[in-house]
Amino acid sequence: MEMKKLLLVVTIFLFLFSCKEIINEPEKELSKTEEVASKPANNTPFVWEGANIYFLLTDRFNNGNPENDINFERVDSTGVLRGFKGGDLEGITKKIEEGYFTDLGVNAIWFTPVVEQIHGDTDEGSGVTYGYHGYWAKDWTALDPNFGTRKDLENFVKTAHKNGIRVIMDVVLNHTGPVTPKDPVWPENWVRTSPICDYTNYQNTTSCCLVKNLPDILTESTESVELPDPLLAKWKAEGRLSNELDELQLFFDRTGYPRAPKFYIIKWLTDYINNFGIDGFRVDTAKHADEIAWTELSKEAAYAFETWKKKHQEEILDENPFYMVGEVYGYSISNGTEYNFGDKKIDYFDHGFKSLINFQLKKDAQKEDYESIFSSYSDLLNTTLSGKTVLNYLTSHDDGEPFDKERKQAYKAANILLLTPGESQIYYGDETSRSLIIKDAIGDATLRSFMNWQELDSLPAIQKVHAHWQKLGKFRRDHPAIGAGKHLRLAKSPYVFSRTYIDGDFKDKVVVGLDLPLGKKSLWVKGFFGDGTKLYDAYSNTPVEVMNGKVILENDFDIALLELAK
Length: 566
Fold this sequence. Notes:
Blueprint: H1 2-37, E1 52-56, H2 58-61, H3 89-97, H4 100-103, E2 108-111, E3 115-117, E4 137-143, H5 150-162, E5 166-171, E6 191-192, H6 203-206, E7 216-217, H7 229-237, H8 241-255, H9 261-276, E8 280-283, H10 291-311, E9 323-326, E10 339-340, E11 345-346, E12 355-358, H11 361-367, H12 370-381, E13 389-392, H13 410-419, E14 423-427, H14 453-458, H15 460-478, H16 480-484, E15 486-491, E16 495-503, E17 506-514, E18 519-524, E19 534-537, E20 542-545, E21 550-555, E22 560-564
Helix pairs in contact: 3-5, 9-10, 13-15
């Protein structure tokens, strides 16, 4: 009898458990559907010319591991926002896994340098400052533990690639970190410590120190030099001296380069491609180094990328070559292919760069209408800059005059940045109206507050702005025509334009309407989409059909994103 009761109990338990699984199954399927819906179509090619790039300060984005927040006794009280705040590689990876970047339409992440920073601090009038930003290298061969470990970097890159996201590593070749009691100056055959740059001609822009106490690498030198004794002692104490020296020997044997300062650093930087599959470099302070150094960096980066691909066939995202974008401070798309130093012009596109950061868009956004910006950029990118591109931005980490500093035009900022031809650079927090005015912060520190996750989680107004950026970002990612295509205005009022991108058998056509009336609206598409063509408005999630050369929508949005119905 007891056995029968036991069997009955077991039978009931198994029945209830199976019912629970059946009830929960639709919920699992819904999650899968939502995940797939947020990703680009498999047949949509990735092209750098139309990339949607997210730029973040590694230390200021997301703290994935509080255990690594303090290292090298960096405990002095600092100026406002001038110390480490805890962000790290693990934090970026977690946000990839949560789908944050995918839902924003991001297909490339640019992160600030993570190499080991100076251990000490400086105070040049802004308060005590540590190398939280990553631009003050002490040892290019090691990761700074504040940012994470080599395993964290490997996991970050792999996770990004699994989600269709490229990784752009910020690199510094032209200077070391500042000199501090803990960080001695590099030998004089490696660096110059004077004069300070005047920025009035080629010589006093490239062969000088950017600012006081920032030793400048002799990138123009081809003279062989020995490794600094402090670096050798550091490697020995860390138990890797022999390995580092052996790798350097192999590099110089293969390339035949002299052991000049720039070639050591080129080797160290390209190791990150060889070891982790980094997809691109953002080159810091490009105009402050001998331009030949960038040609050589590009050559070795391309070699490293192809070597990595051969070893990781299953991890290759596409056939795009290694990518380099340069920060030639002050370059504008209207400059065409050359930057003018006053006494000399340099075409950085001829020295390994696919793209240059465009410092012009933030100014155009203040004074020009949509059509003036879109048409002029499209014309330049399809003529003078054909085969090249520019990286557009409105906000950045060291630009004290961003567009909409008070964050009063968040929707317009999204429209301009994400719909302007060329690449787009979302600066972390653009999409969440992160404040750029921080009390008592001096200089560029006010641009570098920690990501405002709490506001995104709790404020409906921020969530609404974020949703707008998400819709535009995903549309841009899914349609190379937006960034890489040709622009054509279809109607002046209401404003409607088309973009077309053709590459071999792939063709992408879209229509966008801006500043549309609320309620019922008519969008003129005649000559671009024929009558009877079935379209889909990706902004309002509405299927429509072209009739009499028009598309009719009725909603409370002032924007439409029209694509061919799938």
